Amino acid sequence: MLFKKICAVAVLSLGAIASAQAADKMYDFKFQDAVNRAVADGVLDGSVKFYLAGTKSGGKVIEKGLVTNKKTNGFAKSAETSCDHVLRSALIQFQNTAKANGANAVTNLVSFYKSNETRSTTTYQCAKGTALAGVALKGDLVKF
């Protein structure tokens, strides 16, 4: 009997989490401000530059259309704090991949949440629900 109650509570809890995440709200935050904070804080080393689609072109494309999709715990945190943190995770992944492939920039970056492409020359999109925040980006590795 106790086991059945525990299982029922677990199922209800998982359902509540899934319902909360189904209600993600999309936020737009200033991309360059977030990148500058990450470099200033030492999270990014500054050796790889990041450019939203429409802000920089040229160079030799090393790899096109790479996607990163990161999530973080957003429970009891503001959208801005959660989204800044998860963007940093996405940019760290791009920085490491770029360096490993001989690139020094990631260009043509677009928000790519749930495979929906959103272009902006100034902002990135972040989805924030009750428990999680997520950022997905798609971009090209470039050597300038």
TrEMBL record:
Top-level taxonomic group: Bacteria
Signal sequence extent: 1-22
Name this polypeptide is given: Excinuclease
Alphabetical keyword list: Signal
Taxonomic placement: Bacteria, Pseudomonadati, Pseudomonadota, Gammaproteobacteria, Moraxellales
Organism this protein belongs to: Acinetobacter tibetensis
